[in-house]
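Table S2 (text version). Query chain:
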Amino acid sequence: MRLGILISGRGSNFEAIANQIARRKLDAEVAIVISNRADAPGLEIARQRGIPLRVIASAGLEREAYDRLVVDELRTHEVEIVCLAGFMRLLSAYFIRSFPSRILNIHPSLLPAFPGLDAQRQALEHGVKITGCTVHFVDEFLDSGPIVIQAAVPVLDNDTVESLSARILSQEHLIYSRAIQYIADGRVTIEGRRVKIREEAAE
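Corresponding structure-token output:
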């Protein structure tokens, strides 16, 4: 399964995916890493690992015009699954139609709760006892696509945004690769809003 990973910042979820591939725990390869920011720290991770990378600056470009450049690059590298890993841009309808049910995102809450930015702060301010993270398919609306997998994280009385974010992130690093492997294994089907994951065949 050839992955295209889009980043804007530190790339910790990209690094976690690359680590799982290196450990042979994820049957995939990173075909290209694309960032809309030349100063994204995640690019150095790609350089150190010898993974192809490309900076496509988004400043000054309309959303669809930018997305057409990114889609062309992904197609050049024969990408099968697009993984958003801290990519701080909303995708256009053109992008989503180019990879139908083939774009994944990870979000630091149990969607549909707390979509958008600062999900961890939203959870603390709302006073929930459990939050977590969600891997979902991307559609044309914000953090609203069909859910593949989720992990719950308890909210502690003494939590700060930073401490809660760190515990959620550790779960993100686990479930993102798991979701990719489900797709690589052909175990995922989408029925309306429900994602069904077929059980592994008994050996």
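Notes on Table S2: The longest helix spans residues 161-184. The longest strand covers residues 130-137.
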